[in-house]
Amino acid sequence: MSRMAMAVKSTAAVVSFAFLLWSSAASAQPVGWMTYTIPQTGTSVDFPASIFTEEAGRPDGRGQRFRTADGRADITIQAEPNVSNDSPAAFLAKKNPPARIQYKRVTSRFFAVSSYNGDKVFYDRCNFSGRMVHCVLINYPASEEHDWDDIVTRISLSLRGS
Predict the structure, then answer these.
(1) Are 130 and 80 members of one domain?
(2) Inter-residue contact 106 to 91 (CB < 8 Å)
(3) What's the whole-number average pLDDT of the chain?
(4) Going by C-beta distance under 8 Å and a sequence separation of 6 or more, which residues neighbour residue 132?
(5) Could you tell me if 7 and 69 lie in one domain?
(6) Could you give the CA distance from residue 92 to residue 115 in angstroms, rounded to a whole number?
(7) Number of domains in the chain
(8) Domain containing residue 47
(9) Are 62 and 54 in contact (CB under 8 A)?
(10) pLDDT in tens, 61-116
(11) Which residues share a beta bridge with 115?
């Protein structure tokens, strides 16, 4: 290979590397968190308000939906009465979850499930207290799954209800 070809190839590699560093830094801006609370039910959850910037309507029961500005991801924070006083396992079974759930954890106080739905990942967690079910439902691109892991974990672990 000639010196000129090696210099061009080397320069292209440096430019590509610099672009990767720049694009990683641009997408690694700090996430701004806030707590969303449903006063009537005592449901609260930390969520990244700097990511979910747009209100997207109300779910069943009480709560709010939010989505990203580009619509690629959404979050629903909701609470609803547990009219049948179902256990988390019974409540989940009545929702008819997909047969091929990738992650499922059910305890006496909550359930969490996650799987793929087309090109999206869904994650649902519901905590049970008294006669209320406090839930957070998140949908995001499967191609960004690893980028969302820490965000989904923080949201999930912050879900509370009284």
Answers:
(1) yes
(2) no
(3) 85
(4) 41, 42, 43, 79, 80, 81, 82, 161
(5) no
(6) 14
(7) 2
(8) 31-158
(9) no
(10) 899 999 999 999 999 999 999 999 999 999 999 988 887 899 999 999 999 999 99
(11) 122
Same domain, 36 and 13: no
Q: What is the identity of the amino acid at 86?
A: D
Q: By C-alpha distance, which of 80, 71, 78 is closest to 51?
A: 71
Locus of tokens 């707590």:
35
- Same domain? For 70 and 122 the reply is yes
Residue 38 contacts residue 77 (beta carbons within 8 Å):
yes
Claim: this prediction has a pTM higher than 0.85: no
Phi, psi angles (nearest 5°) of residue 159: -60, 125
Q: Do 11 and 89 belong together in one domain?
A: no
- Quick check: 58 and 75 in contact, CB under 8 A? no
